[in-house]
Structure formats: structure tokens, C-alpha cells
Amino acid sequence: MEGERIIEFQLVGIKTAEFATFDQDFDPNGLFVVNTNLNYSYQIEEKLVIVNAKFIFLCNEKPVIAIAVNCYFNLRQWDEYYTESEQKLTLPKNLAQHIAVITIGTTRGILHTKTEGTLLNSLLLPSINVLELVPNDIIIGGKQ
Prior knowledge:
CATH class: Alpha Beta
Number of domains: 1
Strand order of the largest sheet: 1-4-3-2
CATH topology: Bacterial Protein-export protein SecB
Number of helices: 3
CATH architecture: Roll
């Protein structure tokens, strides 16, 4: 589209920050809810944006899986989005949404791999509307 800029970035790292299962509370006929948490941070030395996606699967209000994954992205136009005087990084909404989609998809794959061969493998990370999860630009940091 006219007027849109291409923002260059690269996925440069993935880390499973947390993974725990609580099989004793799993009931295949239970009521399931997935709590979702998405956080953004940055690492100034390497000019990285870090997206942390955390999901807790509840069965009858008790946790059965907790998983958190960090994806590390190199932002090529770092200086256009980082304000040194305010120690603030502003991610345009479309970029923040796109890297969230990548992080959530990565988490989905890690969840499948870690639960493969267990009863918990029947629990899939559902589709998530990232447009609702990230409705605005993301501002990280900033002097208080």
C-alpha cells in the first residue's frame, strides 16, 4: 500500500523461559480456559526487541500447563524507533502485532513438542486475535 514503510527485522533467538505441567489436575472432560499474557521489552546493547508470550492452561480453574517463550528480534531501523533521551522504544502497531504473531506461533510449536506423547498434547494453543491483543503502538521503557 502507498505510504506504508517496510520495517526490517529478523528473528535471532528463541528461549523457552518457563514450562511446567500439572498432570494430576488434567481432566479431559473438564472446563478449559487459557490465560494469555504478552509483554515487550528491549535489550539496548544488541538492539533487540524481546516479545514474551505466556500462557496458562486451566482445567476446572486449576493450572495444568504453564508455558512462556521469549522471541528475540533484531530491529534494523533501531535508531528511528528508540529515543535515547527518554530511554524509550516505540514499536509501530503493525510491527508489534506481526512479531506477536510470530512469538505466539513459536510458542504453539514448542507446546506441541514438549507435550508430544502425553495426555496434555490434546491441549492446543487456540487462535488468538492479535489485533485485539495489540490495538496500539507499543511503548517500551521511558523515564518515569
